[in-house]
Specification:
It contains twelve helices and twelve strands. With 426 residues, the protein is α/β, with parallel strands linked by helices. Among the domains are: 104 residues, Rossmann fold (3-Layer(aba) Sandwich), CATH 3.40.50; 167 residues, Histidine kinase-like ATPase, C-terminal domain (Heat Shock Protein 90, 2-Layer Sandwich), CATH 3.30.565.10. Strands 2-1-3-4-5 form a five-stranded parallel sheet, with helices on both faces. It binds adenosine-5'-diphosphate and magnesium ion.
Length: 426
């Protein structure tokens, strides 16, 4: 049942109104402005207040002003009940925020229908407010979910590019591991031969020395000792180089992912570029020539693993854009006092005007499933923006494409002097 607070300094008026309302509403009564304020702020909260204008000590206008100043009572609609018939006081009441006016003497039907209208309006408003609150919560949750999904997408792009590369990397590692293994087997056989020669030298036999020497020499000849001596050294040298290659690949993979050091730091971009190019080598080594035009680069304040991710995207895109054979050129240099530039150019098929428009859109890809996710450049641009840098593209159909990154040496200097760079989210 809805609650109505009736405020009037005249006991007869209170009684009349109370009797009129009681069949439909729960009625609370106040005989002064002070009482009214106390009751309005306590439970059960009124859904409507019928307020007498002319009261001693505190008149209705003042009560309304105070109700509206209080967070707890501000939304309760107030209907003035007044004997006054002048329009000025109505005007003033409405300006203060009164919901309506009922004039004394009270005519039951008119008063009740006006009261009902106010109560209904309030109920509708409350339900709207609750719905709006609910929608706001839903929207907030939606935004949060969207952000989560976006983070997952970026992460999966990373995984996809690592997945694509892993076959090539496995091959790069398998190759030396394969020949080191076969060299070890050959070395084992050579050792057997060597042991049998040594055993022959040391064998107890009654034969004269010359005869034994001849026997040993015969054995050495049969076992091709001279060739064995040379080949053992070759096999060892080759195996050493194979192991070194594996070590280098592992070091590059570490350099690429920058395992262990993922935050903002001062770093040399050439190191990251070299690691990344080595890791990506399998994507271009068969059909592209790699040209490095490295200039002078100061260390820059960055998140190296993320920039490596950008280099990787650009290099793999360049390699995939080259059909037949072509060239990938990586150029670096300083621009002005506080920026550096890295550009990755290819002599590939170029990008169409539509492609240029949509390049950085999430999921825009012209590649078959498994080869492209369409997130590489989206992610790259995000990382570059996080570094307060720029990524630009120049492309000519059939001729090739150049992606140029411009990065500030210290992004912090570009923001407010003492704010940290934005946190690394990816
Ligand atoms: N160097 C490039 N040459 C030609 N087209 C490119 C090059 N880089 C990117 N593109 C085009 O932009 C699209 C989006 O690239 P990207 O965001 O890295 O996604 P993905 O490589 O997974 O397709 C590619 O599918 C390709 O059509
Ligand atoms: Mg890509």
């Amino acid at each position: 049942m809805k609650v109505i607070l009736v405020v009037d300094d005249d006991a007869t008026n209170l009684r009349t109104l109370g009797e009129l309302l009681r069949p439909e509403y729960r009625v609370r009564l106040a005989s002064s402005g002070e009482d009214a304020l106390r009751i309005a702020g306590s439970d059960p909260r009124p859904d409507l207040i019928l307020l007498d204008v002319m009261m001693p000590v505190m008149d209705g206008y003042e009560v309304l002003r105070r109700l509206q100043a209080d967070e707890a009572t501000r939304t309760i609609p107030v209907v003035f009940v007044t004997a006054l018939h002048d329009e000025d006081s109505e005007q003033r009441g409405f300006e203060l925020g009164a919901a309506d006016f009922i004039h004394k003497p009270i005519r039951a039907a008119v008063a009740l229908s006006r009261i009902r209208a106010q109560i209904d309006a309030r109920t509708a408003r409350e339900s709207l407010r609750r719905k709006a609150q609910h929608m706001a919560r839903v929207a907030e949750q939606g935004a949060e979910q969207l952000e989560n999904t976006r983070q997952q997408l970026l992460q999966s792009e990373k995984m996809a590019s690592i997945g694509q590369l892993s076959a090539g990397i496995a091959h790069e590692i398998n190759n030396p591991v394969g020949f080191v293994a076969s060299n070890l087997a050959a070395l084992g056989r050579y050792l057997d031969d060597l042991f049998s020669i040594i055993d022959a030298c040391a064998a107890e036999s009654g034969a004269p020395a010359e005869q034994r020497l001849a026997e040993v020499r015969g054995l050495m000849q049969r076992l091709e000792y001279d060739y064995l001596k040379e080949d053992v050294l070759d096999l060892l040298a080759e195996s050493k180089e194979g192991v070194e290659r594996v070590r280098q690949i592992v070091a590059d993979m570490k350099g690429f992912s920058h395992a262990g050091a993922s935050g903002w730091q001062w770093a040399d971009l050439h190191g990251g570029l070299d690691s990344t190019l080595n890791i990506a080598r399998s994507t271009f080594k068969h059909h592209c020539t790699l040209v490095k035009r490295y200039g002078e680069l100061p260390q820059i304040h960055c998140i190296p693993s993320q920039l490596n991710q950008v280099f990787m995207n650009l290099v793999v895109n360049a390699a995939q854009a080259i059909e037949g054979s072509g060239e990938i050129t990586v150029t670096t240099g300083r621009v002005g006092d506080d920026s550096v530039q890295v550009s990755i150019a290819d002599t590939g098929k170029g990008i169409s005007p539509e492609g240029l428009r949509r390049l950085f859109e999430p999921f825009y890809t012209t590649k078959p499933v498994g080869e492209g996710t369409g997130l590489g450049l989206t992610l790259s641009r995000e990382i570059v923006q996080r570094h307060r840098g720029q990524i630009e593209v120049n492309s000519e159909l059939g001729k090739g494409t150049v992606f140029t990154l411009t990065l500030p040496i210290d992004p912090v200097l570009d923001i407010d002097a003492d704010t940290e760079p934005p946190a690394a989210a990816v």
